[in-house]
Amino acid sequence: MPQAKGFRFAIVASRWNDSLVSRLIDGARDALKECGVDEGAVKTYRVPGSFEVPLCATKAAESGRYDAVICLGVIIRGDTPHFDYVAAETSRGINEVGLKTGVPAMFGVITADNVEQANARAGSKHDNKGYEAAMAAVEVVNLYRKEFDSGA
Ligand code: DLZ
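^ thats the input. predicted complex w/ DLZ below
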């Protein structure tokens, strides 16, 4: 199990599809706990929808308070082209957070055709996109500290 004691994380999560997103938040928190992160070292920010996640994640990253930002949301395809716009801008925006700020921003957003699909990706441990994104966050923070921090 990778260790992350002393690391600090922000979770930025949408309220849209809240029952599923809450399970992603739980999954992310479980993963961080397993890696030795103190509960007080994890701060969760809620935003209205996934479209709002990138800006909040940018602000969290720029605050200098966090080693990584874990972005969570659930976007479900409907009958309109809205899904495509929201999904595309959310993923592009989250990628930009890391590239622009240098703080890793993890993509824990489910994009699904229907609720059943989304449900299957909000299960437990490795079947939970929040858990998976948090584990990836711990991995890259360890990697960047070891390989790129001054004095390493
Ligand atoms: C409007 C909208 C729609 C149709 N679907 C979703 C969705 O499946 N998941 C999600 O996180 N957000 C959705 N939203 C809301 C947008 O993300 C955003 O909050 C609004 O367009 C306001 O900017």
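The chain has one domain: 9-148.
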